[in-house]
What we know:
four-stranded mixed sheet, six-stranded parallel sheet, Rossmann fold, 12 strands
Amino acid sequence: xxxxxxxxxxxxxxxxxxxxxxxxxxxxxxxxxxxxxxxxxxxxxxxxxxxxxxxxxxxxxxxxxxxxxxxxxxxxxxxxxxxxxxxxxxxxxxxxxxxxxxxxxxxxxxxxxxxxxxxxxxxxxxxxxxxxxxxxxxxxxxxxxxxxxxxxxxxxxxxxxxxxxxxxxxxxxxxxxxxxxxxxxxxxxxxxxxxxxxxxx
Length: 201
């Protein structure tokens, strides 16, 4: 028996013969400051713009964030009321190409599935108000509307809220950013350079 075969035989012997019960009772504690306040603080730390508003002011808040933007793409499930005050061109996503989504001056408006307060993260699960992943990864400007009741404290609670955990999930923590070897920050390389978050409620 070769050395390789011997190592592989040992690995096979190490496998459990009966299924192992893996505990799934992760910490879902909700102690500490209100999750919404913590979420707003952490999202701002990532250099995203955060606006808080009441439900009746979503349209004017979204319009203010899109001031000067000539056109927006929206997934099919975005409520029309969110866009009522926006004067520019509204393009429904009906299979737009990457080149279409990468057009200069184009922004995207979506909802989200859940927000994580401790990490300042938006979780997108391709629901009707979020659309396909390309919508939030290609355009240079993303406006995301989240309700206060969608914000939870930690990751385990967020994953428990996802309607269909088998869907591909996109976790967004601030605008796209990376650093080179000298730690010079570069934004917009792997996604939107500008992220605006509207917290409603």
